[in-house]
Design a protein that fits this description.
The chain is mostly helical. It has helices spanning 8-33, 43-72, 80-98, 101-124, 133-148, 154-184, 194-213, 218-236, 247-267, 275-301, 311-332, 339-361. The relative contact order is 0.11.
């Protein structure tokens, strides 16, 4: 247990992997068997909640608590501190079934606890480029609390929360995807433009703001369309086609592509494209694929292992991509009879991750270093 609590990514990536299989497995089974989940907020609301505040927040928490240490050179939570933050995450999972108000409030404190844990070293080191993560985590905490207490519909809270998670992906992805590509592939024509970096991130923040007040309307569609074009331009500059022989890289490019695809579909919602297709391009596509790719890479690099994924993980990358394509395709076709198959594929991909990476996540680094 001491090893697992040494650095946040170890415990939280394990929780994210296991919970993705449990939560989506339960949801897929309920669809296949036509059985209603007896969650406190209702099956659909529970499904959305667990994708964002369960799975996504575990990944974000593990990543930020680990990365903030590298960004600032200052210590972040470890040992008892990680265990306490994880306890809040677990409380929220229980609250999703029981509906207890006190438990819900405690559970909603998880993103805020992560914000405090990463905010202290960020502020102390005056690492201003990372300051934006603090209000994002605060927003996620406020949305969870508002939905639990009935101040906001679950559908609205989950939709804006997905936008907030995409902001995190856009910030982190914009830093690491071109950097990793440039460093790993000699001669790759990776290009970045300062104005496009700022504009693309501002556009995603604008999506969050518009979705708080006027979701799915023409204003939301316009802002999403602008964001989609900007992120497409950003993505094209990273020369992802050069990574086709490196699974640990191409999965990140594929995952990021789902961001501009999702925004493009959202721009078309007022003109007949199902909102579910746009939403699942961002969730099953961007969040699912980038989470799997990042967890695989971070788990190798921070446990002192070579940055080469095993063949089953390459297979998992392909399966999670197929799951996203199937889920979005079914939404576009307004076909619901086979949704469980998309969920099953997603579960398979993350089951492989848990099976392959658990030994590394629970074992000391082979080079003897801390972490």
């Amino acid at each position: 247990m001491k090893v697992v609590l040494a650095t946040a990514f170890r415990l939280f990536f394990l929780l994210a992997g296991v919970w993705s299989v449990v939560a989506l497995g339960a949801w897929s089974w309920s669809l296949h068997a036509s059985v209603a989940l007896r969650a406190a907020a209702g099956g659909v609301a529970w499904h959305g909640h667990e994708l964002v505040w369960g799975f996504s927040m575990a990944v974000i928490g593990g990543f930020l608590l680990t990365a903030a240490r590298a960004w600032t050179g200052r210590p972040t939570a470890s040992g008892v501190g990680i265990a306490a933050i994880a306890a809040l995450w677990l409380v929220d999972r229980v609250a999703g079934w029981t509906g207890g108000e006190a438990a819900s409030i405690l559970g909603a404190a998880f993103p805020m606890a992560v914000a405090l844990a990463v905010g202290r070293p960020i502020l102390a080191a005056k690492s201003w480029r990372n300051i934006g993560f603090i209000p994002l985590l605060g927003l996620l905490s406020a949305l969870d609390l508002a939905a639990h207490l009935g101040w906001m519909p679950w559908s609205a809270a989950s939709r804006v929360a997905v936008d907030a998670v995409v902001v995190v992906l856009a910030i982190v992805g914009g830093r690491i995807v071109p950097l990793f590509t440039r460093n790993a592939i000699q001669g790759a024509p990776v290009r970045q433009w300062a104005w496009l970096e700022w504009a693309s991130l501002a556009a995603v923040w604008a999506v969050v703001a518009v979705d708080l007040w006027a979701p799915w309307g023409r204003a939301s569609a316009f802002v999403a369309g602008v964001a989609g074009v900007l992120h497409l331009g950003r993505w094209l500059g990273w020369a992802g086609w050069w990574t086709r022989r490196s699974p640990i890289l191409w999965v990140l490019h594929v995952g990021y592509a789902w961001i501009w695809i999702g925004f493009g579909l959202r721009a078309a919602v007022p003109y007949g494209v199902p909102a579910s297709a746009a939403l699942h391009a961002l969730t099953a596509g961007a969040i699912g694929t980038l989470a799997l790719g990042m967890m695989a890479r971070v788990s190798l690099g921070h446990t002192g292992r070579p940055l080469v994924v095993k063949r089953p993980i390459t297979g998992a990358f392909l399966v999670v991509t197929l799951a996203a394509l199937l889920r979005v395709g079914l939404a576009l076709a307004s076909e619901t009879a086979h949704l469980a198959w998309a969920g099953a594929l997603f579960c398979i991909a993350f089951t492989v991750f848990v099976a392959i990476y658990t030994p590394a996540l629970v074992s000391p680094r082979p080079d003897g270093r801390e972490g």
